[in-house]
Design goal:
mainly alpha, flat
């Protein structure tokens, strides 16, 4: 959250805000890849991540 205070100094907010959806996809991928989280991957969750990335 603290990083978002410095974003307007470097990027236009209209370009930076859509990058926020990447964090949801990265957290999902990290939770599936890192074995100690024991998060199962499913088609429904992957479809949800794609919907977030496409802005629906």
């Amino acid at each position: 959250m603290l990083c978002w205070f410095f974003v307007p100094r470097n990027l236009l907010l209209s370009r930076a805000y859509p990058l926020l959806s990447l964090s949801y996809a990265l957290v999902y991928l990290a939770s599936v890849m890192l074995l100690w989280f024991n998060e199962p991957a499913s088609v429904l969750k992957s479809f949800g991540v794609l919907l977030i990335l496409f802005g629906v």
